[in-house]
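Dear U.,

For the methods section draft, I wanted the exact inputs and outputs in one place so we can describe them consistently. I've listed the two proteins in the order they'll appear in the manuscript figures. Please don't edit the token lines directly; just add comments below if something needs changing.

First protein:
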Amino acid sequence: MSYPEPRYLGENGEISAVHRPAETPPDLVRGANHTHYLATHAGTGGEFGLYRLDMGPRAPGPSTHFHRTISESFFVLSGSVRLYDGERWATRGAGDFLYVPAGGLHAFKNDSDEPASMLMLFSPGAPREEYFERVAEMAQRGGQEFADFLVRHDSYFVAEEEAGAVRK
């Protein structure tokens, strides 16, 4: 294994770190769910996107889907999160991690009576903020406009029975 080609060509390093204090309010509040934009694609130069999702009790998540251009990883910080890994749903708790490569079927939700929190990492970084902010509105509109929105945001949803057929 070798390291990637250098991207910083200076000799002495530079002051360029970005700090986000823990008390920073969430960037998006939708019902009982709070999304914190910890590191966006814009802030990382497209390297990755890191988001914290604080879910209220019984919070639904996206149904089974996959991405063609990005991987997605989940790290449970607190509570219980139901994660679908393309084969089965499993309840995961603090410290559990799930990596889903591009093309991997996945979904998540909080079906417990307690709040839950997790980190979501997208790599490479993609402009996910518009997706998070507008998906509910676009789903209500439906039709071709919603279909185009999903494709623009690299989100391809499949029915549970289709996901099961992929496994066979």
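Second protein (the one for the lower panel):
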Amino acid sequence: MSVLCLIANPAEPVLDLPLLQRVQAEIGGEINWLTQRIAAEIVKPKHAAPLDAARALVAGRPVDVALVPLVNRRKKLLIADMDSTMIDQECIDELADAVGIKDEVAAITARAMNGELDFEAALRTRVKLLKGLKVSRMEEVRRERITFAPGGRALVQTMKTHGAFTSLVSGGFTYFADYIGKRIGFDEAMANIIEVDGDALDGTVRSPIIGREAKLSRLMTLAAYHDIPLAATLAVGDGANDLDMIRAAGLGVALHAKPVVAAEAQVRIDHGDLTALLYLQGYSDEEFVR
């Protein structure tokens, strides 16, 4: 059995009853509001292809549509990407901007996130370009340029309150991930270690690299350690290095993702914020922990 979710961005609450009723008339099932004008679900749709039918009716509206199983709906493990997922920026691009080479580095980042370049090689190339950047400038970037993605704290705190383990696993750097993980409330944070010589970056990153394989490995390791079936796990990210963990998780979500990731994920969220991942699990706004 499954449930069809319709989710708008809380900043643009455009989901209305007439739209829901049109979808229900096409696919059957029972309407249940999770948050008025933001999120609703249609439980046990009867249509043979409810997702396609609903997307056709919603087309042109900033509303995400997803079909999720009712079994193991509330997840017990969250593993999340950091850059452009839990925060709004790519940290390495912001560091590059601090030394005047953002366009060059951001172009490499974009190609790596689209799966056009080997992630490890692309990371080492970009870090080499940052050689000489003062640690004090890194602190300024972290303090002044990094913003938390909307809904992230509610996602993590709500899932933790309901017994989930939460892991931030980033292809970025511990300098950012450790701080951001603590601020949002993750149980753990993993990322790459960028090497420092004195008071400046030396242009290298420590091996082994936290990339695509490491993210998948962490998902599998945590699920086994906490005795959580994969069906009860949730992975979210936006780039090609997130794709393996998104494929493997019980609920894999591409959040405002690159096309290669959005095309393969079980669920794609193009309009909603991170609270969409709570609505997918059947949480209502009254249950959110902020």
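Candidate sentences for the figure legend, describing the second protein: Residues 212-225 form the longest helix (14 residues). The mean pLDDT is 97.

Thanks,
Y.
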